[in-house]
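Propose amino acids for all 649 sites.
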C-alpha cells in the first residue's frame, strides 16, 4: 500500500503528503513547488471562509439538516427525502465537537469546500499546464456562488469535495487501485448528496476502458465497490428513516409528485420547451452564477476562446477530461433541476472556470515575452471583479443574522407563548419547528389555494415575508434587502432567500429599516405602527410617502404622525398623495434601539366593490408607498427645504 501513496502519477495532495513524510520540504522539483502553492491556496481559502462564515441559518435546507441532527425522520422533512444520510452523520459528529447546529454545519462546509482545491487542481492539471490549472482553480474559488455557499450550512461544498476526489482518482484509473478508490468515493459522495449523481457519469469511461482491455475482474470489482458503498448507507437509511425499502420507495415517489405540483420547473419535462428554453432558465443557468451579466459576458467570451483553442489544437483528450467530468451535470441541471437555488450550479461552474483560465492564457500567449505578466494581470482583474460581487454578501453573513432569525429572537424575547398562535409562511416552517417549539403555530397556507388567517380579535403573530394583512394593530419587521444584494445580482439565490421578514400582530403590513427603503403598496387601517432601528447616533431623515384614496372617503382624512409618542405632524389630506420628510436629531434617539413610528387616520373605507378590493375583510385607510429611514446630512437637508415638505398632487 505504501507504493500507492508515492506513485509517480499520484494526485497532488498525495505527492505533498509523501514529500512531507520524507522531510523533503526544500525539494526544488517544480511539481513539488506547485504542490506547495496549492497547499498555500487551500490555507488562504480556509481562513478567509472561516472569517466570513455565517452566524445564523438563512435557508430552509439548512434548518432541515439541523433538525435531522436531533431527529432523523424523512416523513417529517428531517431532512427531506432523499435523506443525505452521510451528511447528517458527519454533522452529528461535528455537533458533538462544536455544540450548536450552525457551527456544526457551517464549519464542515468551510473545511471541505476549501479541501476541494486539491482534487479540483488535479483534474485541471490532467487537462492543462500547472499555470492554467492554478488559474482555473482560483476562478472557481472566487466565483460568487462558490464563495458564498462555502460559508453556509449547505451540504453542497462537502458533496462536491467528495465527488471531485472520486473524479480525480477515476482519471488515473489505468492503475486499478485508483479505480477502486474512485468507485469507493463515488459511492460515499452519493450518500452525502444523491442529486450529484450526474457527476458520477464519468465512472462509465474507466469502466468501459476496463471492459475493452478485457480486465473483467477489475471492472467487476469497481462495480461491486460502488454498489456495496451505496447499499451500506442506503439500506440503513431506508430502514431507519422510512421503515423499509418499499416504504422508502413510496416516500420518494410521493415526494417527487409533491415537487411536480409545487414547482412546475422542477423535476418535470412537461413544460420543457416553454420554460427550459426560455429566458429565465438560461439566465439562471449561465448569467447569474457570475454575479453580474458584465462578469458573465467576460468569462463566457474567455471560455469560448479557450474552448476554440483546444479544438483548433486538437487537444481532444484534454477536452474530453474536463467535459466528461462536469458537462453531464450541466445537462442534468438544464433538464431536471430546480434552479431556484444557485448552489445547484456548483458542480458545473468548474467547467467554465477552467476554460476561462485557458482563454486568458491563450490571449496572453500572443504577447510574446509579455505573456506571463499579461496572464497574471488578466487573472488578477478577474479575481478582483469576482470578489466585488461576493464580498457584500459574505460580509452580511458574517455581521448579521438572517431576518427570520432576528424576527424569531424578537418573538422569543417579547411575546409569551401563552395564548398566542404563530401564523407562518410555509418557507419558515423549519425555523418555527426549530426555534419556536413552545408556541402554538399554524401555516398561513396549509394547502394549495387556501389561506388561513387569524380571526378578528385573535391573539396571533404573523411570521411572513410579504403579507400586507389587514385588521391587526401592531407589527414589527426586519429587512436586509440592502444595496449589497441588489448590486450582487445573484438573482433568485438572494432575492428569494434573503428577503424581508415581517412579524405582525396587527393592522399593518410594512416595514424596512436599518438602511435603505422598501417600495410597495401596503395598506393600513385606522392605526399602524412601525419600528425603526437606530444603529448609531447620527441624524436621521425620515420620509413617508403614502397614497390616500380620496374618492372613497367621506371627507378629507385627518392624519397624525408620531415618533416615540412625540407628534411629528397632523394635517388634513385633500389630495391623493402626500410626502412628509423630517430631520430627526441623533441625540433624540437611543442608540441600538427601536424607535416607534405611529401613523393614524380618522377615515377608512370598505374595499369591497372598489378597485382596492382584496381577499381579506377589513377597513382600509391609506397605502404606504415608501418609507425611508436613513442617515441624514443636516445642512444639506435644511438647504433643500426637505423638512416636513408636502407633496404636490
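Proposal:
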Amino acid at each position: 500500500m505504501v507504493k500507492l501513496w508515492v506513485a509517480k502519477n499520484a494526485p497532488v495532495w498525495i505527492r505533498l503528503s509523501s514529500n512531507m513524510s520524507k522531510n523533503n520540504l526544500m525539494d526544488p522539483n517544480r511539481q513539488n513547488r506547485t504542490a506547495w502553492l496549492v497547499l498555500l491556496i487551500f490555507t488562504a481559502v480556509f481562513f478567509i471562509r472561516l472569517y466570513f462564515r455565517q452566524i445564523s441559518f438563512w435557508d430552509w435546507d439548512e434548518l432541515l439538516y439541523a433538525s435531522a441532527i436531533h431527529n432523523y425522520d424523512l416523513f417529517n422533512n428531517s431532512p427531506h427525502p432523499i435523506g443525505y444520510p452521510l451528511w447528517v452523520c458527519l454533522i452529528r459528529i461535528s455537533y458533538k465537537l462544536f455544540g450548536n447546529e450552525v457551527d456544526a454545519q457551517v464549519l464542515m462546509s468551510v473545511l471541505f469546500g476549501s479541501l476541494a482545491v486539491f482534487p479540483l487542481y488535479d483534474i485541471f492539471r490532467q487537462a492543462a499546464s500547472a499555470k492554467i490549472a492554478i488559474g482555473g482553480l482560483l476562478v472557481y474559488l472566487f466565483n460568487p456562488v462558490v464563495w458564498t455557499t462555502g460559508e453556509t450550512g449547505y451540504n453542497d461544498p462537502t458533496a462536491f469535495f467528495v465527488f471531485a476526489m472520486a473524479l480525480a482518482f477515476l482519471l488515473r484509473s489505468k492503475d486499478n487501485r485508483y479505480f477502486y478508490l474512485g468507485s469507493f468515493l463515488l459511492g460515499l459522495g452519493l450518500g452525502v448528496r444523491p442529486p450529484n449523481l450526474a457527476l458520477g457519469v464519468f465512472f462509465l469511461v474507466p469502466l468501459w476502458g476496463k471492459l475493452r482491455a478485457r480486465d473483467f475482474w477489475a471492472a467487476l470489482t469497481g462495480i461491486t465497490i460502488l454498489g456495496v458503498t451505496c447499499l451500506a448507507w442506503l439500506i440503513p437509511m431506508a430502514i431507519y428513516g422510512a421503515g423499509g425499502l418499499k416504504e422508502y420507495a413510496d416516500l420518494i415517489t410521493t415526494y417527487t409528485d409533491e415537487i411536480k405540483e409545487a414547482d412546475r420547473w422542477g423535476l418535470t419535462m412537461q413544460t420543457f420547451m416553454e420554460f427550459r428554453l426560455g429566458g429565465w432558465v438560461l439566465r439562471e443557468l449561465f448569467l447569474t452564477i457570475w454575479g453580474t451579466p458584465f462578469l458573465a459576458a467576460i468569462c463566457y467570451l474567455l471560455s469560448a476562446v479557450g474552448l476554440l483553442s483546444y479544438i483548433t489544437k486538437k487537444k481532444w483528450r484534454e477536452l474530453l477530461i474536463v467535459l466528461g467530468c462536469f458537462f453531464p451535470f450541466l445537462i442534468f441541471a438544464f433538464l431536471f433541476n430546480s434552479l431556484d437555488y444557485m448552489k445547484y450550479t456548483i458542480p458545473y461552474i468548474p467547467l467554465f472556470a477552467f476554460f476561462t483560465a485557458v482563454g486568458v492564457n491563450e490571449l496572453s500567449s500572443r504577447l510574446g515575452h509579455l505573456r506571463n505578466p499579461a496572464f497574471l494581470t488578466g487573472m488578477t482583474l478577474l479575481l478582483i471583479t469576482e470578489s466585488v460581487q461576493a464580498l457584500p454578501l459574505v460580509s452580511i453573513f458574517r455581521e448579521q443574522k438572517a431576518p427570520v432569525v432576528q424576527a424569531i429572537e424578537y418573538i422569543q424575547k417579547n411575546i409569551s407563548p401563552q395564548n398566542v398562535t404563530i401564523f407562518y409562511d410555509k418557507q419558515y416552517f423549519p425555523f418555527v419547528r426549530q426555534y419556536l417549539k413552545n408556541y402554538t403555530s399554524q401555516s398561513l397556507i396549509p394547502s394549495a389555494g387556501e389561506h388561513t388567517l387569524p380571526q378578528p380579535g385573535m391573539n396571533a403573530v404573523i411570521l411572513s415575508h410579504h403579507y400586507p394583512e389587514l385588521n391587526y394593530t401592531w407589527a414589527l419587521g426586519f429587512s436586509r434587502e440592502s444595496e449589497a444584494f441588489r448590486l450582487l445580482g445573484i438573482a433568485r439565490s438572494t432575492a428569494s432567500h434573503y428577503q424581508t421578514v415581517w412579524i405582525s400582530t396587527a393592522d399593518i403590513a410594512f416595514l424596512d429599516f436599518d438602511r435603505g427603503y422598501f417600495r410597495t403598496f401596503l395598506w393600513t387601517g385606522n392605526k399602524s405602527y412601525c419600528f425603526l432601528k437606530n444603529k448609531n447616533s447620527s441624524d436621521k431623515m425620515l420620509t413617508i410617502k403614502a397614497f390616500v384614496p380620496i374618492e372613497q372617503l367621506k371627507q378629507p382624512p385627518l392624519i397624525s404622525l408620531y415618533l416615540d409618542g412625540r407628534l411629528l405632524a397632523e394635517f388634513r389630506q385633500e389630495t391623493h398623495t402626500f410626502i412628509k420628510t423630517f430631520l430627526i436629531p441623533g441625540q433624540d434617539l437611543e442608540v441600538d434601539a427601536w424607535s416607534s413610528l405611529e401613523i393614524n387616520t380618522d377615515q377608512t373605507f370598505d374595499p369591497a366593490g372598489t378597485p382596492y378590493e382584496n381577499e381579506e375583510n377589513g377597513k382600509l385607510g391609506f397605502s404606504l408607498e415608501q418609507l425611508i429611514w436613513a442617515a441624514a446630512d443636516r445642512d444639506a437637508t435644511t438647504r433643500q427645504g426637505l423638512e416636513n415638505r408636502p407633496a404636490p398632487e
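The first strand starts at residue 421 and ends at 424. The chain has a mean pLDDT of 77.
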